[in-house]
Amino acid sequence: MTLKVISFQVADHIDVRQFKNVFTANIHYSDLEELFYHIGNNKYLYVFRHGIVSFTGYTETEMSSFLQLIKPYCRNYIEQRLSDEFDIETGAPSVIYGFSKIEILQADIEIIRLIMLNVSQSVALDYYDLQTNVLLEETNYHTQILEKQGRIELGVVELKKSIGRTLNLKNKIAANLYIFDSPEETWEDEELNKLDQGLKKTFELQARFRNVQEGLAIVKENLDLLKDLLQNRNSARLEWIIIVLIMVEVVNLILEKFIK
């Protein structure tokens, strides 16, 4: 039997508390951050506070209908959403990890949940990586102008907005760091722990997370440099204004004495 897991980044945030109150399907696990439903035979649904919805055993029509259902509970809903797919094949003599699939002995509910969690973590990293690359492109544009022209074509307000976007993304990642942790069930079950570690290696989660952190560090370093240069430029302008005012005052004094 083959099951398909599909995870979508649908928003920046999903109000899981309110959604839980209105969506009354059979819930297997819930906390303040995530909701995991066992909808029916080989049909599962995973909803995460950080804006990801994961499906197993759903048709395209069912997924589209559900995404419209959850839309009112989303903040900054994403129409062109990122997604990731992963196949689960049962009946294998042992766990076999593939590029976009995993072969397991049987589809236990905790195993399904763990696989869906890792696929969702992969989509979250794609989302954060995309946002980081946008910030990198913005700062690289200004540093290239600085290299070619020796000056900054960047206003104070625009720089503040770039700094704000970077800080917001860093705060968002920091707030959602829990999504890259292993669930408590893996601490007590050796087989689940091995499966979790194998999935993390398959999706290269740790390496990709480091890349996002390093990218944000580069963006912050570039913005700090641009901020210092702007401050120096503004300080130099202020100094020239003061010098001009002093010169004007001196000239006025000289003219007054001359007239007298």
What can you tell me about this protein's structure?
This protein has 260 residues and is of the alpha+beta class. It contains seven helices and ten strands. The strands form two sheets. The protein has an eight-stranded mixed sheet with strand order 3-4-5-6-1-8-10-9, covered by helices on one side. Strand 4 and strand 5 (43-48) form a beta hairpin. Helix 3 runs antiparallel to helix 4 (156-175). The mean pLDDT is 83.
Q: How many strands?
A: 10
Query: Strand order, biggest sheet?
Result: 3-4-5-6-1-8-10-9
User: Roughly how many Å is the radius of gyration?
Assistant: 27 Å
Helix amount: 55-70%
Tell me about the largest β-sheet. 8 strands, mixed
Distance between the termini: 106 Å
List the helices and strands and how they pair.
Layout lengths: L1 E8 L3 E2 L1 H7 L4 E4 L3 E7 L2 E6 L3 E5 L3 H11 L3 E2 L6 E9 L5 E2 L3 E4 L4 H41 L6 H20 L9 H4 L1 H14 L1 H55 L1
Parallel strand pairs: 8-10
Antiparallel strand pairs: 1-6, 1-8, 2-7, 3-4, 4-5, 5-6, 9-10
Brief synopsis:
By secondary structure, the chain is α+β, with helices and mostly antiparallel strands. The chain is built from seven helices and ten strands. It has an eight-stranded mixed sheet, covered by helices on one side. A two-stranded antiparallel sheet has the order 2-7.
